[in-house]
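Morning run. Coffee first, then this:
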Amino acid sequence: MTQISLKQIVRSATARAPADEARDKLGHFDDKSRRDFFAKIWPGKEAEESDSPFLRHYYRCCNYAFLSPEADAVASRTNSDVVWVIERLESNAEREDLMQSVTTDESVAKQLLTIALKTSLMCNIKIGAGGAGETDLDQRQLSWDHGDVKSLLKKAFPRDNKMGGKGRLERTFHARNLERFGSIQVVWTHNLLDHLRLQDPSKEGMPYRVSIFHQAQFLRHHEATNIFPEGLIQETLMTLALLFPGYVGGTVTWFKQQQKSNKKDLDITACYCDFLDYEKRNIETFKYWGDRLTILKQAYDEAEPRTILQWWNDGRKRERWATFWVAILVLILTVFFGMIQCIEGGIQVWKAYHPS
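And here it is:
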């Protein structure tokens, strides 16, 4: 476990003072500062337009801090302060050392550390009481009270498929069909802790909701780091490949529609993950997300089509589909021939009273 000495803390705190505080103001970027920001937190990655979902997430994290009682003190800090904290997090510094090294003001330290955690890990992590936590009560949240962040993440993401789910996830099992056939509403999340979490309807007749983490570029960056539990990032990318198969017609178009309705706040590269072959589509392959996939698959299989269009497009159970449409055809033909007989009967009656 990496320990930080007092000398290192003082030297690092001095070195992180920005040359141009106006340009480096917390939550604000010009072109140069944006490139510098990405160069430090995502080495080798250029800050392109496609990164806007990640930047929007960072802006939200800063805005939550600006709404806190410590807003004035937080507003005087810089993006470089956040970068410095992220670098200490990735070196696996312990919470107590970080709290002491960020600033002498404990409340401000909690705000900056929370911003850094939610930016670098995209997990809703709170530093004890206070901190720039999400206000959405539906989100899962972790509280970091002591120790290093790697230990916290290891507890948050256990490598244990408790439900023992088995079977293969067919190619029709993807996000677009969850809404089309399963009547399961897709809810987009920036909180990795909520990925694939299925929520019961809030009211009778309302659909299930499943949260999906879409930040694929963030995940690809962390493939080269070791802060998350081993294999978690790769497996999460596999779930995106499962849910957003770019090779399936209509997937990319559907995702872009979702992106438009969410004001470009979704990472389109989620549709361009690696292809999943037959073996990788087995639920047993997913050690971290297996239980949530099992629950989601059960809800998807049990859902009944609600509209005629859903019945027509639903190909999950071919026998049920054929039975339904044969019954509809028989009904239509019955009504059709019944109307013909009624018309013929009416004509005959009319002729009986008007023989000429």
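The first strand starts at residue 125 and ends at 126. Good start to the day.
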